[in-house]
Design goal:
329 residues, mainly beta, four-stranded antiparallel beta sheet, 3% helix, globular
Length: 329
C-alpha cells in the first residue's frame, strides 16, 4: 500500500482529503476540506493545485472533456486559475447528452446549461417545472423539485434524470414526467451516490438502507448488514467489472458481482479506524481519500485471501493442553 499526505511539509494545515477522481490524462485529482483540488501523477508527484478560493470542503470533482468541475467553479486542466466566477454548484453535477448539467443543489434538483448562461435545453420548456435565475451569471435553472438534493445521475440508456433528495428518489424524463421510486416495502430511498453499470442497472448507496440496485426503475436487489455489509449507512460506491466497492460508516467493503458475496476489505488493508471519504477504482488500482491522506494500492491486495503465516504448536484451554488434532471450534 502506498500513501501520500500532502500536509507533511505544511505544519499549519489540518485539511482532510474529501474527493478523488481520475482525469482525462490519467492523473489523480484530489479534493480537500479547504477548497482546493490537488493534481498528482500515478507515482504521487504533485503536479498542480487548483484553488477555488473557498475555505469550505470540495464536495465533488468531475470532468467535462478538458474542464475540471468542482463545487465552487471550473478550471481548464493545466491552468490553476478558475475561469468561472465563484459559484456554489451543490453536492454534484453530471453531464447529460443535451448540453446541460444535472445539478444536486442545496435546495433543489434541476438542470443548468453547461455554459452557465441562458436556459437549459429541455424538450418540454413549458412543463410543470419552474425556471429560476441562478448565481452570478445570466443563466437559469429548470427546477424539478424544491428540495435539497444529495446526488444525481443521468441515465444514458433511457435519457432520464435521477435525483436523490433528502426525502426520496425521483426520476424525470425529457417530457416532464416525474416518478417517485421506493423500496418494495414502500420505504423511501435516500441516496448518497448513484452509478450505472454496462447493463443499464443503477446502483445506489443509501443512508441507513444499504445498497440498492434498480432495473427498469424498480428495486431488484439489496445488500445490507444481513449480507455481511459493515454498515447500512453507505456513503460512496465504485464499480468495476468484478466488484462493487462500498464505503460505509464503519469500513470499506467489496461485493462480488458473480458470487453475490460481501467481503470486508478494510481488514486486508489494515486501515480499520481510518475515516474514508471517497474511493476511486480503475482496471488495476484502488485509491482512497481519507482524513489522514490518500492511499492507493493494487486490487489484488483486496481480492486475494490474506492467510496467517504461522502455525499452532500448542493450545491451552481451561488449564488443559489440547491435542492439535482435536477440533477446537
Amino acid at each position: 500500500i502506498r500513501s501520500f499526505n500532502f500536509d507533511e511539509s505544511k505544519s499549519s494545515s489540518s485539511k482532510n482529503y474529501t474527493k478523488i477522481a481520475i482525469g482525462p490524462g490519467e492523473n489523480y485529482f484530489i479534493g480537500t476540506s479547504d477548497g482546493k483540488v490537488i493534481e498528482i501523477d500515478r507515482q504521487g508527484k504533485e503536479i498542480m493545485t487548483y484553488d477555488t478560493k473557498s475555505d469550505n470542503a470540495i464536495e465533488f470533482v468531475s470532468f467535462s472533456k478538458d474542464t475540471l468541475l468542482t463545487t465552487y467553479g471550473f478550471f481548464k486542466i493545466g491552468n490553476p486559475r478558475m475561469f468561472t466566477k465563484s459559484i456554489y454548484l451543490g453536492k454534484g453535477i453530471v453531464e447529460d447528452d443535451r448540453g446541460n448539467f444535472l445539478m444536486a443543489g442545496s435546495n433543489f434538483g434541476g438542470l443548468i446549461s453547461k455554459s452557465l448562461v441562458g436556459q437549459p435545453n429541455f424538450e418540454k420548456k413549458l412543463a410543470k417545472y419552474k425556471i429560476i435565475p441562478y448565481g452570478k451569471y445570466d443563466g437559469n435553472i429548470l427546477v424539478f423539485r424544491d428540495k435539497r438534493a444529495k446526488c444525481v445521475l443521468f441515465d444514458k440508456f433511457h435519457r432520464k434524470y435521477y435525483v436523490a433528495y433528502i426525502d426520496g428518489l425521483y426520476v424525470y424524463d425529457n417530457f416532464g414526467n416525474e416518478k417517485h421510486i421506493k423500496f418494495p416495502n414502500k420505504k423511501e430511498i435516500i441516496g448518497s451516490e448513484m452509478l450505472q453499470d454496462e447493463d443499464g442497472c443503477i446502483w445506489i448507496a443509501t443512508l441507513q438502507s444499504g445498497i440498492a440496485r434498480l432495473k427498469q426503475e424498480q428495486v431488484v436487489e439489496r445488500i445490507t448488514v444481513k449480507n455481511s455489509l459493515s454498515n447500512d449507512n453507505c456513503r460512496r460506491i465504485e464499480l468495476d467489472d468484478k466488484n462493487l466497492w462500498i464505503v460505509t460508516d464503519d469500513g470499506f467493503d467489496t461485493y462480488d458481482l458473480k458470487t453475490r458475496k460481501v467481503k470486508n476489505a478494510a481488514l486486508n488493508l489494515c486501515i480499520k479506524g481510518i475515516t474514508i471519504n471517497d474511493v476511486f477504482v480503475d482496471h488495476k488500482m484502488v485509491a482512497l481519500a481519507t482524513n489522514q491522506g490518500v492511499y492507493y494500492f493494487n486490487k489484488n491486495i483486496v481480492e486475494d485471501e490474506s492467510l496467517p503465516q504461522f502455525k499452532f504448536t500448542s493450545v491451552l484451554a481451561n488449564g488443559k493442553k489440547l491435542p492439535l488434532d482435536k477440533e477446537i471450534v
